[in-house]
Write a structure and sequence with these properties.
The protein is α+β, with helices and mostly antiparallel strands. Helices cover 53% and strands 11% of the residues.
Length: 747
């Protein structure tokens, strides 16, 4: 730190403190050893860095420090004084003899369970005291925990709250953030404003995990990578990295590090009490197990492999039934189906999805006869909690689903709200044939490929023919046409109006269907560019289906296009809380960073999705485009070539992307050959003018690119939503025609 700070503090504070030497520094402050002149005692003088001081209001800072000064607890480092000196803001604490927990961990790597639990309980006691007085620390980490004579002391209460008042923009400009990625709670990372004591509990659990294991629960090559893991993974089991921790402590940390704050301990005092247990306590079915479950895709045991659609559909319908229970957290379909065919240990699945029980089973169909087996398994020990075999006729399928759901409820001893006689599974149609066709449609829709989506539409249409009042079949049509339009696999004018019609039919039949409102909002966003109406539909979908992860995901897209990045991130977070292994959402967080020109930060999100599925098309496509935007063309090329191979050279967007990378690399011949290939394909299928525009812009032909963007507007391309942000269009931004298009789209 430059000498002028030391010199000025020494001179200006000489009547109050004799500043002796610098003894430490961090991201927010520089620490000096000093002596209180009046009381003749040694103190630590913490001075905020000038670049941070410039962003703060002095009055707010002093007010927050004043509140912290009122905390008097054996495990809290007291605040003696605070003030301003020229442009410097400072506060004064006792000079504690000892070391930080970080220094001890650096030296010893990890602590004995006895030491770790004693320290954690001391910090928890301090937090409980502060929380009861309305003060949340917000930055619990080993650097802010001091160890003196074996006891823990928490420092820097009030600092994070004071600094957070500067606002996100000021903090970004200074390169600082509130909290430390390795210990921040998901809600704090998401930028939520209503942070409460449960965020501190989460951070302390991460610190305790590190004390016991020698490493933080989430690690990565960058802060962004660490934060990405908060939303894509659960913390590795402490039992995997150490056998020394008592079982009760392992269980306490799992609860304290729950992704949803509602699932954590209500108070730090409760967490401290849980950490005091040193004996193994057997899991109780009415505790954690009664709160969360994952329904794995049932195995198809029929002789006909084509019946897989039916076994998958049964699983999905049971998921939908269980999500109606307000006391039960149910892993979303995408996350549960990520384990299809992988034969993972049920305990591993429980850890990944953060659930206490897993339902698995099988379906055998022969003509009109069904045999469905189901087993409910406890994650903690792998023992069966309940099992049953159902031999019925096909027309009994809805009754079987309801019986399974009720058996789970009874086994987990969940107290339901409402009339227990009301069926959890309501018949969506009286036609079993229509239901089977609907399941076939959803089975194909889930594949998201062009042939499967079009095949799915055929099944949904047949289901509607069997039962015109089958609302869910209409939603299936809307979802299918929306995805075909979004992927530019058919012309927007052939896709989105049909999605509109189907979604509106579904809403007329059942106005309470969240999925119908979400599908309608999607078409309003990407085809009509009606921002207000789309936002209304997305919000309505979230009201009707608070556990439906697609609604906050779609809403996030709208928010990011409008530049409302903080709101978008909160909704992406909500979608991932509901469906933690949803690849498209994981990758889309990266795409949000990409469109915000935070290219380096986007990479971990794409890679997190690819770690789960190396062939996930859009994560690989977006990663390649991100590398191209960074000028890392040698890395972009293999990613896009892989996308072309995955789609068997049939996806126009992937071919256009490959042409663009070649153009950026100066390989004009290759780029123009691909344009010729796309021109040939245009004789028999839709080719997006928008994607062609990005290639011509990369070739330097901005006039042709601008004309193509105008054609894309006339085509009603969904990509017009990207006009304000897409880096591929940067060379066109000053063209008056481009500015006019932005005004037409109202973005």
């Amino acid at each position: 730190m430059p000498a002028p700070m030391f010199d000025r503090l020494r001179d200006r504070l000489a009547d109050r403190y004799r500043v002796e030497e610098e003894i430490g520094s961090g991201g927010m402050a520089v620490v000096f050893a000093a002596r209180d002149v009046k009381l003749n005692r040694r103190v630590a003088l913490k001075v905020l860095r000038p670049e941070l001081t410039a962003s703060l209001g002095t009055e707010r800072f002093l007010r927050e420090i004043g509140l912290a000064a009122g905390l008097q607890h054996p495990h809290i480092v007291a605040v003696h004084d605070s003030g301003e000196c020229d442009e410097f803001l400072f506060y004064v604490m006792p000079l504690v003899e000892g070391e930080t927990l970080r220094a001890r961990l650096d030296r010893e790597k990890k602590l004995t369970p006895a030491d770790a639990i004693r320290i954690a309980r001391g910090v928890a006691a301090a937090l409980d005291y502060a929380h009861r007085r309305g003060i949340v620390h917000r930055d619990i980490k080993p650097e802010n925990i001091l160890i003196s004579e074996g006891e823990a002391l928490v420092a820097d209460f009030g600092i994070a709250k004071a600094v957070s008042g500067a606002g996100d923009q000021s903090l970004t400009q200074t390169g600082l953030a509130i909290g430390t990625p390795a210990y921040m709670s998901p809600e704090q990372i998401a930028g939520e404003t209503d942070i409460d004591g449960r965020s501190d509990i989460y951070a302390l659990a991460c610190v305790t995990y590190e004390m016991l294991s020698g490493e933080a629960p989430f690690t990565g090559a960058s802060a962004q990578a660490v934060m990405a893991k908060r939303f894509t993974q659960t913390a590795p089991s402490l039992r995997r990295v150490t056998a020394a921790a008592p079982d009760a402590v392992v269980q306490a940390l799992v609860r304290a590090m729950a992704g949803r704050r509602e699932d954590r301990f209500a108070t730090a005092g409760e967490f401290a009490a849980a950490l005091s247990l040193t004996t193994t306590t057997p899991p109780q079915p009415g505790a954690a197990m009664a709160k969360s479950i994952a329904v794995l895709p049932f195995a198809n045991m029929s002789t006909d492999p084509e019946n897989e659609y039916f076994s998958d559909g049964i699983s999905e319908e049971i998921i939908n039934a269980l999500t109606k229970l307000p006391m039960l957290r149910v892993a979303a379909r995408t996350s549960a189906f990520a384990f299809k065919g992988k034969n993972e240990d049920v305990r591993v699945i429980g850890e990944r999805l953060n659930v206490g029980a897993v339902l698995e089973g099988s379906v055998r169909r022969a003509g009109t006869r069904l045999r469905i087996t189901a087993q409910l398994i406890g994650v903690s020990d792998g023992y069966h909690l309940w099992s049953e075999v159902y031999d019925r006729e096909l027309h009994d399928v809805f009754a079987i689903q309801d019986e399974i759901a009720r058996a789970i409820v009874d086994t987990l001893k969940i107290k339901l709200l409402g009339d227990p006689a009301v069926a959890l599974v309501e018949k969506p149609t009286e036609s079993v044939d229509a239901y089977a066709l609907y399941l076939k449609g959803r089975y194909n829709w889930a594949k998201r490929t062009e042939p499967a989506l079009k095949k799915g539409i055929e099944y949904f249409e047949q289901a509607v023919e069997k039962d015109p009042g089958y609302a869910l079949a209409h939603v299936g049509l809307a979802d299918s046409y929306n995805i075909l339009g979004f992927q530019d696999l058919i012309a927007p004018r052939d896709a989105f109006p049909r999605a509109h019609a189907a979604a509106r039919h579904a809403m007329e039949m059942d106005p309470t269907l969240a999925a119908a409102h979400a599908a309608e909002g999607y078409a309003l966003l990407y085809y009509d560019w009606d921002w207000e109406a789309a936002e209304h539909e997305f919000k309505r979908a979230m009201e009707l289906g608070p556990r439906y992860p697609t609604a906050p995901f779609y809403y996030s897209n709208l928010l990011q296009f409008q530049g409302r990045i903080d709101e978008a991130f909160v909704n992406y977070t909500r979608a991932l809380e509901l469906d933690p292994l949803a690849l498209i959402v994981i990758a889309a967080v990266g795409q949000m960073k990409h469109l915000s020109r935070r290219f380096e930060e986007a990479i971990p999100h794409y890679k997190a999705a690819l770690d789960l599925d190396a062939d996930f098309l859009f994560a690989r496509f977006w990663l390649g485009m991100n590398y191209a935007a960074m000028g890392r063309l040698d890395e972009a090329l293999p990613e896009i070539e892989r996308c072309v191979a995955l789609t068997q050279r049939s996806h126009p967007t992937m071919l256009a992307a490959l042409a663009r990378v070649h153009a950026l690399a100066g390989r004009t011949k290759e780029a123009r050959a691909l344009l010729a290939e796309l021109a040939q394909a245009a004789n028999h299928r839709f080719i997006s003018s928008f994607e062609l525009a990005t290639v011509h812009s990369a070739l330097g032909d901005q006039a042709r690119a601008m004309t193509l963007v105008e054609q894309a507007y006339e085509e009603k391309s969904h990509s017009m939503c990207l006009l304000a942000q897409d880096p591929r269009l940067d060379a066109l931004r000053n063209d008056p025609r481009f500015v006019a298009l932005r005004a037409k789209v109202r973005i």
